[in-house]
């Protein structure tokens, strides 16, 4: 993929953020997130951008859906990992595409769902919603929740959006199940391949 240099004007970085963030021409670290409350400040900075958006680290995350397999996998004498043990709770974790909320206008939402075939003693989920900016992925909101003796758990991470703005969004979450018959986890994400419009 070829990149052409473009000039972008930043109008929403506070002096405090600039002091704590190191920029280099051509790249910006995805870990250096700009706070949402910096919006509206009058500091202006011009930076040449020649690289595409950096991916939000997903580590061992899988796309869309994954089974919550046992965490206690073991390696054999040759160091080869055994297949993850299937837990009797039969839980699956999924992240849908970030989308305009069907219930709250001017809000982008993403769902983190755990569904089990049997009642699970403990379900726990923590997930985030981010949007793609010229410098990388910007964290917008975090959703977390837990439930006992249940077959399902839904956690959401909503964030208000400005009407008629266009962004790509990503949702990712870590899912956990635990009980007397073992504990398991999964790391799942989903994202929009194209920008979506905030309908307001």
Offer a few descriptive terms.
mainly beta; 200 residues; single chain; elongated
How many individual helices? 1
**What is the succession of H and E elements?**
EHEEEEEEEEEEEEEE
Distance linking N and C termini: 34 Å
Rg over C-alpha atoms, rounded to the nearest angstrom = 20 Å
Mean pLDDT: 74
- Low-pLDDT runs: 1-54
- Percent of residues in β-strands: over 45%
Q: Helix amount, in percent?
A: under 10%
Could you describe the largest sheet, including whether it forms a barrel?
8 strands, mixed
User: How would you sum up the global shape?
Assistant: elongated
The strand count comes to 15
Secondary-structure content class = mainly beta
Give an overview of the whole structure.
The protein is mostly beta strands and 200 residues long. The chain has 1 helix and 15 strands, in the order E-H-E-E-E-E-E-E-E-E-E-E-E-E-E-E. The strands form 4 sheets. Strands 3, 4, 5, 6, 9, 10, 13 and 14 form an 8-stranded mixed sheet that branches. The chain starts with 5 loop residues before the first strand and ends with a strand.
